[in-house]
């Protein structure tokens, strides 16, 4: 297993596809959500290292992680739950970049299922790693089993490069706003429906409350 040194843990892939993904995603998302998306990749890579997983395509992992919340971008059609909308946008973008349809479909699955624990673990390494990266960035409220894959030193390096900026609140705001636009965006049961209901009844979601005592906070 290759050790990822502290000065390399915040390094992004230098490939044409990675550059294209950043170019399309960065203008569409708030800095908070964009940083979360990038940290998802960096944390996913550390989880892969800890689990000695090596059979995944790093470019596809980067694309799936960085595009996993593009479904809440304000310019979207907002006619499906954000996970599916993001998966459709990401897969369509990748095909236009010349990525084979089968590979784009792997990214589709990873994004569409990233809020589906109990299912995502059965759909291959890419799905597992995207879900794990998201879980680690929430610091424990979800997927607590993956958090210990990251040392304090590694986490400090990543957070210095891509600050949190009240990510949990910012991302929840975006999911709730997207969900409220169309009943199809928040089918019951689903994460968007839960967030929409909890915000309406309690003013905040259980995830936001849990973040206060998570490893990284909000």
Description:
The chain has 218 residues and is mainly α. 55% of the residues lie in helices and 0% in strands. The longest helix has 20 residues, at 31-50. The two termini are 32 Å apart. The model has no long low-confidence stretch (mean pLDDT 92).
Portion of residues within helices: 55-70%
C-alpha-based Rg, rounded: 16 Å
User: Could you say which overall geometry the principal axes of the C-alpha atoms support?
Assistant: globular
**SS field, number of helical segments:** 10
Spell out the helices and strands N to C.
HHHHHHHHHH
* Relative strand content: under 5%
N→C terminal distance: 32 Å
Largest sheet: none
Could you write a compact summary of the structure shown?
This is HD domain-containing protein. This protein is mainly alpha-helical.
């Amino acid at each position: 297993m290759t050790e990822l040194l502290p000065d390399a843990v915040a390094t992004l892939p230098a490939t044409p596809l990675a550059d294209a993904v950043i170019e399309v995603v960065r203008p569409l998302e708030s800095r908070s959500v964009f940083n979360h998306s990038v940290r998802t990749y960096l944390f996913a890579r550390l989880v892969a290292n800890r689990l000695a997983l090596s059979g995944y395509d790093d470019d596809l992992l980067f694309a799936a992680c960085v595009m996993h919340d593009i479904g809440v971008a304000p310019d979207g059609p907002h006619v499906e739950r954000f996970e599916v909308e993001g998966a459709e946008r990401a897969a369509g973008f990748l095909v236009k970049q010349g990525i084979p349809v089968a590979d784009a479909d792997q990214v589709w699955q990873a994004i569409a299922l990233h809020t589906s624990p109990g299912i995502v673990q059965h759909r291959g390494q890419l799905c597992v790693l995207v879900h794990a990266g998201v879980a680690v960035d929430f610091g424990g409220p979800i997927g607590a089993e993956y958090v210990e894959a990251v040392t304090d030193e590694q986490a400090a390096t990543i957070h210095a490069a891509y600050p949190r900026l009240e990510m949990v609140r910012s991302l929840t705001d975006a999911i709730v706003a997207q969900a409220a636009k169309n009943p199809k965006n928040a089918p019951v049961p689903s994460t968007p429906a839960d967030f929409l209901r909890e915000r309406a009844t309690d003013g905040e979601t259980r995830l936001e409350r849990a973040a206060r005592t998570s490893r990284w906070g909000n």
